[in-house]
Amino acid sequence: MTEPMVRAEQVHKRFGRLAVLKGVSLTVMPGEVTCVIGPSGSGKSTFLRCVNHLEKIDAGRLSVDGQLVGYRQEGDKLYELREREVARNRAEIGMVFQHFNLFGHMTALQNVCAAPVQVLGIARQEAREHGIELLRRVGLEDKRDAYPSQLSGGQQQRVAIARALAMRPKLMLFDEPTSALDPELVGDVLAVMRGLAESGMTMIVVTHEMGFAREVADTVVFMDGGVIVEAGTPSELLANPREARTRDFLGKVL
Ligand code: ADP
Ligand code: MG
């Protein structure tokens, strides 16, 4: 049986007295694209941050590619992972944020090559060749020597995607990657993400782009109030939602 790439079982997360995730269960199989939709404050970013080792869960079980996030299991004992081990596991997951946070003093190509050289210890020349190939893949081969300030928001976001891919991740997480972009720049970024999905990448995408969710997602998940209210194929969830809360939300965004 194939191991899920992501398996969340009754994941709980609170910040002080605020319960943000209240039992989130979700399975993403290798090669699948899951889109997460839902109102602001429903816990979507927090969930991605838990998957990416940026937040510790308080209860439940969360694993990526068969390995518990943040812990190592021996028998029935759990040991917290050391920082180095966490960093190693994190390096296998790519994350793209709403704000791209490229290094302003580095060119596009340098941004893409930095982590593979510094974190993975890949030879500079090899990293450079892979970086050029990735910039080509996101449609920016002619921008390799441009600095972020010389690029549009959409181009910067595509560099950010190439930078994440440079680590050869087994899972890509996207947190509203097009929300900060001018409308005319959204399409190019979504096209890159669609290509990535078609290449077989496992992806979790938090997005308000319902067209993208409809066409690219295997599963669409509606989150509200720290729980998954409903999940299904795009045609089930977007066209025939069962839950009133899902219908309300879709009525506002579609
Ligand atoms: P979404 O991405 O769906 O908009 P978030 O996961 O960002 O939702 O946030 C869910 C809730 O958790 C919000 O009420 C937010 O204010 C709160 N929250 C998120 N991160 C923190 C934090 N580090 N400390 C305290 N509260 C937080
Ligand atoms: Mg968010």
Q: Which strands sit side by side, in order, in the main sheet?
A: 8-9-10-3-11-12
Bound molecules: adenosine-5'-diphosphate, magnesium ion
Largest sheet: 6 strands, mixed
- End-to-end distance: 38 Å
Tell me how many strands there are: 12
Choose one word for the global shape. Answer: globular
> Proportion of β residues?
25-35%
Helix and strand pattern: EEEHEEEEHEHHHEHEHEEHH
Output the radius of gyration. 18 Å
Tell me roughly what share of residues is in helical segments.
25-40%
- Taking all residues together, what is the mean pLDDT? 96
Strand-pairing-aware structural class: alpha/beta
Low-confidence stretches: none
Total DSSP helices: 9
What does this structure look like?
The chain is an alpha/beta fold and 254 residues long. It contains nine helices and twelve strands. It has a domain at 101-168. The strands form three sheets. Strands 8-9-10-3-11-12 form a six-stranded mixed sheet, sandwiched between helices. Strands 2-1-4-5 form a four-stranded antiparallel sheet, with helices on one face. Strands 6-7 form a two-stranded antiparallel ribbon. Magnesium ion is lined by residues 44-45, 175. It comes from Conexibacter arvalis.
